[in-house]
Amino acid sequence: MTYFSSASVSARTLPTDWPPLKLYLRETGRQSFSVADLVYLQAVANYSWLNWVDGRRMLMPRTLKYYSPKLPNEWFIRLHRNCVVNRRYVERLERTETGGLVHLSTGDVLPVSRRRWSSVRRQLANNMPHLN
């Protein structure tokens, strides 16, 4: 059962003035990356995969707890204990027998924990009125 589908999100709340993420990359040193281009973060033990809109994936030696304060709360939603997603890239939300799923505009599908399902749905409904 699909609850909503959306490809457009209002540009008026775009966090353009949010400070960029400063990451250290072994090959190039310290670089800044726009938070608006970050699609989702996924934790694996004490590391985090940062997935960008251009398809890049970076494995960083930090936990999600480290990155969470560096992200704008109005744009990033915690889906699961190991996953945070940028709501700009959420295309649709789906409820299945095994739990919830978030479909992203990049083609990725991320699970939503049963405990967080109602909270995620409510947070997404604030920006996407067709969900109500």
TrEMBL record:
Which keywords are on file for this protein? DNA-binding
Please give the InterPro entries that the UniProt record associates with this protein: LytR-like, LytTR_DNA-bd_dom
**Which parts of the sequence belong to the HTH LytTR-type domain?**
23-126
Q: Which GO terms describe its molecular function?
A: DNA binding
Alphabetical list of SMART domains matching this protein: LytTR
The residues forming the signal peptide are none
Pfam families under this entry? LytTR
Report the superkingdom from the record: Bacteria
Task: Give the PANTHER family listed for this entry.
Answer: STAGE 0 SPORULATION PROTEIN A HOMOLOG, TRANSCRIPTIONAL REGULATOR-RELATED
Q: What is this protein called?
A: DNA-binding LytR/AlgR family response regulator
